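Entry 12.
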Amino acid sequence: SQVEDLLEATAAAGNPTDQLMMRMLYAAGLRVSELVSLTPDQIDLQAGIVRVQGKGEKIRIVPLDADTVSALRRYLIDVRPALAAKARVTAKHARSVRSNSKGWGVCVNG
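Predicted 3D structure (tokens):
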């Protein structure tokens, strides 16, 4: 299917952030706005769920399949800390560094 092709293409590109984002959008059925505002405290890997705030400020609980839980765990344990460390090194050459308002990313302004 086209969705499987898209997931495979993101995996082949080797960018774990993009790969996880596509998986969360498709496999978990998250809206883009829910994904970009997701914080670590909304994730329960043990239960395999995320709590997202959707339209109208409503909270909904979204179940995750085992592959998505595994990808999310790998991202939170391995990828995210490495990206944060790299951003700290890069920040030495930028005028300012700030975490995004939700804590997920790091923006470097140069």
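Annotation: The first strand starts at residue 43 and ends at 44. The helical segments are 2-13, 16-26, 32-36, 66-91.
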